[in-house]
Write the structure tokens for this entry.
Amino acid sequence: MEQDAFLEEVEKILSLAQKEAVTLRLLGANAIRLRSQTAKSMAASRRLTDLDFVGYKKERARIEGLFERLGYQPSRTFNMIHGDERLVFFGGEGELKVDVWLEVFRMAHTFNFKDRLHLDSPTLPLSDLLMTKLQIVELNEKDARDMVCLLMDHDLSDDDNDRERINISRLAGECADNWGVYKTFTMNLRKIKELAPNYIADQSRTHLVFERIDKILSTVEQTPKPLSWKLRARVGEKRPWYETPDVR
């Protein structure tokens, strides 16, 4: 689906959700395009086929009804087995796939967004958008570029009060709660710092991204860790620290 038609479809879904008071928050690459002009301009020529949302478990039936009214076909077997956490729908004669995570986002790492959905709209908060990219263990170029764009276009903060800033206390808190998350996040932050010059022509903007990454890393390292975290850190990479995500 071409970008213009794709964005019209996103707007149609979000409009009906708002009209029917169904909570849907966009995440992933498409959410980052909405929140980052740099990401949108870089992705202009990319064919778009996937949409990802987060919603409330208690609204599952209403979410299913919403997509049915929009002409989407549910993945019936998948939804029957996994529908307590995730729903899948297909639209546009099967060329558009929609994932709806019901509060819990489970990939290489697991995050519960139940208490985050009210903080922003139509996407997850910026810190949570960044988290869904930072948790990818086998980072590809598109994901690295998305994160660079997000960090280039948005300053940092220590709380959720400014929706246009990335709350680094949120990132540091997740890292302090789970050594595996810490391992993956810090590994990827250092990796995108290495890759950033490949995507940014303006050297001053490159240094801005470097500064923001360094600030996140510093905050993560300085946040106190519990004993359980320190014990897991001693084990390190001898034991897997992430799950193999279900990419169906």
